[in-house]
Amino acid sequence: MAVTALALRALGLGDLLTTVPALRALRRSGMRVVLAAPTWLREIADLTDAVSVLLPTADMTDLSWHGPVDLAVNLHGKGPRSHERLLALAPDRLWAYAHPDVPEVKGPEWDEEEHEVARWCRLLTWYGLAADPGDLTLRRPRLRRPEPGTVVVHPGGKGTARRWPPERFAEVARELSRRGHPVVLTGNARERPLALQVATAARLPLSTALAGRTSMRELCALVADAHLLVSTDTGIAHLATAYGTPSVVVFGPESPSRWGPPPDRPQHRVLHRGPDPRAVTVAEVLAAATDRGGNLQELSGHHFKRRK
Q: Which residues are 248's β-sheet partners?
């Protein structure tokens, strides 16, 4: 019988996508991977091809598992509470970062400045299981392909401190649409009013506001086939990395060195001018969008092609 590895990552979309290489390493070793994560991430977990079972876990205090756990893996944080929640499941082993409040865990030292992908790969490597930080690609869902040349503009994001002003997103969307590119506005159901606000300000049809109207699989297919994503530092930016879709990502309080796309992938452009994302201008985003798209200029009846 395969060893059961229960991995805790009860956070958001981008958080899950940064652990894909670690989850794949567990699966490749022959383990049955149970991922404790929010239910709404089930479709993403399936597209990793690494997760056997998604254990619905809204947050780590909600963690509950009835059955033996051969190995618990803390991909959630540095502890101590996440360590303690996993130890309460009585696993045969726990892989986690060292924490002085949980001396029985003899893991590696936590590095606050480490990139989130590298962090979890290093954890597994410390315990003798090699993980490749570059193994980030998701399987594309088998869904109808969207309109060619689509530019995805995502004005929302987790926490208002990370958000770029909606009127600036509107300027970007209006200009890219003026150049002839089909623009769509994405987000979750709570962000639908924001997407409609941006669509109205950009003088786009309200039908371009897809926020709250796509499943997670549909969003994945949309990003996978898009020719460009423009967003702030939020989960959809990690989807662009997972599908190799050119992107322009406006960062604010979080460091790109911890949460940005891999620096060796030139199709992604990070704009970071300090903790306030408003320091990034519309002109900078449009210039970066033109550069990332290969030829995001005025169209003459055809869409630009993504760089190979």
A: 230, 269
